[in-house]
Design brief:
This protein folds into two domains: 173 residues, Rossmann fold, CATH 3.40.50.620; 137 residues, Nucleoside Triphosphate Pyrophosphohydrolase (Alpha-Beta Complex), CATH 3.90.79.10. 32% of the residues lie in helices and 21% in strands. The strands form two sheets. Strands 6, 7, 8, 9, 10, 11 and 12 form a seven-stranded mixed beta sheet that branches. A five-stranded parallel beta sheet has the order 3-2-1-4-5, sandwiched between helices. β6 and β7 form a beta hairpin. The longest helix has 19 residues. The radius of gyration is 22 Å and the shape is globular. It starts with 6 loop residues before the first strand and ends in an 8-residue tail after the last helix. This is Bifunctional nicotinamide-nucleotide adenylyltransferase/Nudix hydroxylase. Keywords: Hydrolase, Nucleotidyltransferase, Transferase.
Length: 348
């Protein structure tokens, strides 16, 4: 097949890379001499949904390619942002750094389900759709992988979905400490979903989270239980039946941190409230949170102590946050980014 474009772009999470992805990559390589694989959901903390780092995913893909093709494929890591327009602009900007402005670019993909709507966000690129492989699904691979009693048996079950190099990669990866922790995380999430399985309609939960700053620091907690055990998070939790949103935010904040500040001072410090409603922001169920930004006008940091379901509470310097992106629960880093401007759209 003669190349028809200057470059082709393939976007995905590839968690992990499977045979359906491999077929799309073959189409991309046949379409253009240069292929850019955009690794979505990069820089996250590891989770059952995103267990592999961008470097690990790039290794899986590279190992699955014939050696003669590897130099034609480049990898671009992009964070989620949880803002569709900002995410799409970041993808286009990063690809644009590698190709001339006049380049003819093909976007290769297929419409799998509602999550594939992102393919329509690149009108300047020519969409080339491949055929989805039936019964090939990363979610199913991860489920079998994290529920394995015998890793060899489990990998045999999903063998038709994966290339040989990916199966070998997964077997080696399962011996690392990350694997056992994510098995526990997966079990906790499945148990949470099972508890709501008999509800007459899919549950939509409402939570409240607080961003509290003082003297160049922000107040964070370490999660004490799965999901997200050991990760940094904003103090917050589920809204109670008879609470207003700000009341719930203050209650959860005080329960988890025992912040030594009077409620009146805290309410006076409220600067902004923002809804965070991306459908994929939580792995447990559809969860809409209301972020509250409190900026305390203090030169000294108030005392805090981890309590309730927080293992600990601590004041973290604002200048340290950008380097901690892969240590946060769910989208909490991006909530901080919204209020505090931690990332730049000009970043590599």
């Amino acid at each position: 097949m003669t190349p028809t474009h200057d470059a082709a772009v393939l976007i995905g999470r590839f968690q992990p890379f499977h045979c359906g992805h491999a077929r799309l990559l073959e189409l991309a390589l046949a379409t253009a001499p240069r292929v850019f694989v955009v690794l979505g959901s990069s820089f996250h903390a590891r989770s059952p949904k995103n267990p592999f780092t961008c470097d690990e995913r790039a290794s899986m893909i590279r190992l699955s390619l014939p050696e003669a093709q590897r130099d034609r494929v480049s990898f671009i890591a992009v964070r989620d942002y949880y803002q569709d327009r900002r995410w799409a602009e970041a993808v286009q900007r990063k690809v644009g750094r590698h190709v001339p402005e006049t380049a003819r670019i093909a976007l290769v993909g297929y419409f799998k389900d509602a999550s594939s709507y992102y393919l329509n966000r690149f009108p300047r690129w020519e969409l080339m759709t491949g055929e989805a492989l039936a019964d090939v699904d990363s979610t199913r691979v991860r489920q079998v992988f994290f529920e394995a009693e015998d890793i060899d048996v489990s990998l045999a079950v999903v063998a038709p979905m994966l290339t040989v190099p990916v199966r070998q990669f997964l077997k080696a990866w399962s011996t690392l400490p990350h694997y056992r922790k994510l098995v526990q995380e997966h079990a906790a999430i499945q148990a949470y979903r099972a508890a709501w399985k008999l509800a007459p309609f899919p549950p939509v939960q409402t939570t409240v989270d607080s961003v509290v700053t003082a003297a160049g620091h922000v107040l964070l907690v370490r999660r004490g239980a799965f999901p997200g055990k050991g990760l940094w998070a904003l103090p917050g939790g589920f809204l109670e039946q008879r609470e207003r949103l700000v009341q719930g935010a203050v209650r959860e904040l005080m329960e988890e941190t025992r912040l030594a500040v009077l409620e009146e001072e805290l309410l006076d410090a409220l600067r902004a409230v923002q809804v965070f409603d991306h459908p994929d922001r939580s792995q447990r169920t559809r969860t809409i949170t209301h972020g509250h930004y409190f900026a305390l006008a203090r030169d000294q940091l108030p005392d805090v102590e981890g309590a309730d379901d927080a293992a600990s509470a601590a004041w973290i310097p604002l200048v340290s946050l950008a380097a901690m992106e892969d240590q946060f629960f769910d989208d909490h880093f991006h909530i901080l980014d919204h209020f505090l401007g931690l990332t730049s759209d000009d970043e590599a």
